[in-house]
Design goal:
single chain, mainly alpha, DNA polymerase, domain 1, hpI Integrase, Chain A, 2 domains, 15 helices, about 5% strand
C-alpha cells in the first residue's frame, strides 16, 4: 500500500529529500537533551550513524529515480536492503556484514513508522522486510598464539614510545590535512598520520586488552571515570537490555603496564569529559567498526599477526583465569555472567605459556596492587566465600 491508499496530513513532506531531512530533525528533538556524564558524546555518535545511514538511503532513492511513495514502503525497504546485503564489504572484500545491514534495517523501520504516522505510507511490515536481511551468524573468535599476542602488544607500545612527542599535538596533522595535496609535505604527513594512528591503536589495546572491557565501552570511556590513584576504572553500561539492571561496574587495574599506559595517555590528552581513546585527529571514535579498521590498517602496514579488539577482550579474560583469579570475579569485572563467560570466552585453556607470566615479559606480570587483589580473592575462597559474587577489590 503506497501513498495513494492513504490521505496524507497537511504540511507533510512531498519528496524523499524533504522527508529524510524532516525525520532527522524530528529525531534530534527526541534525543536526550543532557549528555551522560562519563560517556563520550553518546548523542553525537548516534546522530552521526543515523545521518550516515539515511544519506546512503537517499542517494539510492535518487539514483534509482524512486517516486515518492508511489508503491509500498515495505517493498522499497526490501529492495534497498537486498542491495545493501549484496554490496561489497570493507576494502572490497566479501559482502556487507549482517550487522551493518541490520543497522540499516533499524533506521529504515523508524523512518517508515514516522512516515506512517503522517499517513504517507502503510506501517512497515517488519516480518516481511526481515526476510531479506542476512542472519547474524555467530562467529567464533579464535584466540591467537600467545606469542602473537605478545608481538602485537610489544609492537604498538614500542611504536608509541618511539614517536610520542616527535610531532607535538594532534592538531599538527589536522593543519596538514587542511592543505591542498600539492602543497602538503606528503612524507611528513604520512609519517605523522602513521605515528598518531599507532598511538591511537595502542590506547585501545591498553583499555580493551589491559582491562577486559567491551570495545564499545572503550570508545565511550572518559577520564571522568578513570581513578588512577585508586587503581580502578568505572565503565558505564553500553547495553540496555531489560536484564541489565546495573548501570556501571568498577574494574581494578591489575597490570603495571596498563597503569603506565593510562598515565601516559592522561598526560598526553587527559581532561574532564575527554575520551580516553582518541582517533589520530584527537576526536572520539565514531563506532567500533572505525576503531577496528584502524587496528587492521596498522597491522597490515607493519606486517603484524591477525588481531581484533574482541580478541583482545577474550585474551584478557583467559589471562586472568590463567593467573589464578576466580572465574566469578573475572566475570564480574568484565560484565558477563559465569554462563556467558564459560560458553563464549573459555574455549582455549592452554593458549598461554605454562609459567606464571614471565614469558609475557612485563605484559604478564601483575603489579603490587594486582597481587594484593589476587590474594584477597584467594582468601575469600579459602574462607568459604567462593560462591559470593565479588565486588570491586580495594586490596
Amino acid at each position: 500500500m503506497g501513498r495513494a491508499s492513504v490521505q496524507a496530513k497537511e504540511g507533510s513532506p512531498t519528496c524523499w529529500d524533504s522527508a529524510i531531512k524532516s525525520w532527522l530533525k524530528f529525531t534530534e528533538t527526541q534525543d536526550q537533551v543532557a549528555e551522560i556524564p562519563g560517556k563520550v558524546n553518546a548523542i553525537a555518535r548516534t546522530k552521526k550513524t543515523r545521518s550516515y545511514t539515511m544519506r546512503w538511503f537517499g542517494k539510492w532513492l535518487a539514483e534509482n529515480r524512486e517516486p515518492f511513495i508511489k508503491r509500498s514502503y515495505t517493498s522499497i525497504a526490501m529492495d534497498y536492503l537486498r542491495m545493501r546485503a549484496a554490496s561489497p564489504g570493507r576494502g572490497g572484500k566479501g559482502t556487507m556484514s549482517p550487522e551493518t545491514v541490520w543497522t540499516d534495517y533499524s533506521y529504515l523501520m523508524l523512518f517508515g513508522d514516522w512516515l506512517a504516522d503522517r499517513a504517507l505510507c502503510e506501517k512497515p511490515n517488519r516480518k516481511e522486510i526481515q526476510s531479506v536481511v542476512p542472519a547474524k551468524v555467530p562467529r567464533e573468535i579464535r584466540l591467537p598464539d600467545w606469542t602473537d599476542d605478545l608481538k602485537i602488544l610489544r609492537s604498538f607500545r614500542d611504536f608509541s614510545r618511539a614517536n610520542i612527542g616527535v610531532y607535538g599535538e594532534e592538531r599538527a596533522l589536522a593543519n596538514l590535512m587542511r592543505q591542498p595535496g600539492e602543497v602538503r609535505d606528503m612524507a611528513t604527513y604520512d609519517a605523522l598520520r602513521d605515528d598518531l594512528a599507532c598511538y591511537s591503536v595502542w590506547a585501545l589495546l591498553v583499555v580493551v586488552r589491559g582491562l577486559g572491557c567491551r570495545p564499545t565501552e572503550a570508545l565511550t570511556l572518559t577520564w571522568d571515570t578513570v581513578f588512577l590513584r585508586d587503581n580502578r576504572v568505572k565503565f558505564l553500561a553500553t547495553k540496555d537490555g531489560r536484564r541489565r539492571k546495573i548501570p556501571s561496574r568498577t574494574v581494578p587495574i591489575l597490570f603495571q603496564w596498563v597503569k603506565d599506559g593510562l598515565e601516559e595517555m592522561q598526560a598526553r590528552w587527559g581532561g574532564k569529559g575527554r575520551p580516553v581513546c582518541q582517533t589520530s585527529l584527537g576526536s572520539y571514535w565514531c563506532n567500533e567498526t572505525s576503531s577496528n579498521g584502524a587496528l587492521q590498517d596498522r597491522i597490515a602496514k607493519h606486517g603484524l599477526p591477525a588481531y581484533w579488539l574482541k580478541t583482545a577482550q577474550k585474551l584478557h579474560i583467559q589471562h586472568l583465569l590463567h593467573l589464578g583469579f576466580p572465574p566469578h570475579a573475572v566475570a564480574n569485572w568484565t560484565g558477563h555472567t559465569l554462563t556467558v563467560q564459560e560458553r563464549h570466552y573459555c574455549q582455549q585453556d592452554a593458549y598461554l605459556p605454562s609459567d606464571d607470566g614471565r614469558d609475557y615479559e612485563d605484559f604478564g606480570v601483575l603489579s603490587d596492587y594486582g597481587l594484593r587483589v589476587r590474594e584477597h580473592n584467594a582468601r575469600l575462597i579459602r574462607d568459604g566465600a567462593d560462591m559470593m559474587p565479588q565486588g570491586n577489590m580495594t586490596g
